[in-house]
Design brief:
This protein is of the alpha/beta class and 399 residues long. The protein has 13 helices and 15 strands. The protein is globular. The relative contact order is 0.17.
Length: 399
Amino acid sequence: MILPSKKAEGISYAIREVVVYARQLEKKGIKVLKMNIGDPIAYDFDTPQHMKEALYKAALDGYNGYAPSEGYEELRKAIAEREKRRNGMDYDIDDICITTGVTEALQIFLASCLNGGDELLVPGPTYPPYNLITTFHGAKPVPYATIESEGWQPDIDDIRKKINGKTKGIVIINPNNPTGALYSSKVVKEIIDVAAEHGLAIVSDEIYDDIVFEGKQYATASLAKDVPMLTFNGFSKVYLVPGWRIGYALFNNPNGELDELKDAFLRIARARLCANSVCQLAMIEALKGSQRHIEEMVKRLRERRDFAYKRLNEIEGISTAKPQGAFYIFPKIESNVWKDDKEFVLDVLNEVHVLFVHGSGFCPIYGKNHFRAVILPPIEMMEEAFNRLEAFMKKRLIK
């Protein structure tokens, strides 16, 4: 028997792990209402037509071979123009690398940055790959508290307390997955100050930057242009193409502090060849073409957010903060009927056939006793899902 590596033993991705249980029911002919995955295309959203046509045209025009490892120059130039227009940032195209989604940018960064024993401060709760990939490289993800009663804003004092000689960097995810929190510019500036004080790298994940319901998302780099940091962004969410897998990394490197890290990042990028060629060409059209779909998408999501927030708080045994961005909501399980949140999620699935994701899958400390739901489905589907959840809670809380 060939055994898996020790590195692979601890890999478990909660968002897709729960799907395995749902499939067992589906094999029996049971229809499951899926409230678990952040894929707009799985519901009633669609990729803008001009982007589909650009993808097809790219193939017809012969862009079917390998792309440059750092990405096509035309796309990197379009991204730099967006950063100047939206965030007032001046990026050289050589400070931009196109990746196979944000997750690959994260994989390359952590591979180029972490050594065994290093620590990485991540928001608690967080997008699971930050924990998984950090651990895979023999380093330790250290969750810092975010405050539920304050809309899941980061706890600056907790960040300070958790910095030590092993800390390599601080991760910011804004808007946040899984909580839907939109971090205030004041809080982000305070995190920047803490990182600068300790000479730490900042990683800012901004994949949901234009999906905001109230207020404004400020790019982290725009709040401190003289501080070195790495920003991750991409097209999956805002431009409704999660399956096209195009993301990018932006190096804000004003005084050359990131030169060696950037060199290591790009060497790994060359070793993995390139991101998808025709999809890169379509992303140029995404940035330069009509942006009307964004306003319409946010309007629909705001209505769905309002419904989900109100309806979940009406259910006995459930409470939730109000998300300000992205397309997630992160309710709290107020009852101790279940031994943990995963048991709760599987009980809901098996009893009323609604699929959520257990909160501890996003952080065993700050995610426990919660679950994540998406606000992507039409209101009619969410209404059915939450009605089933309410009936389930009534039944369980009576016992």
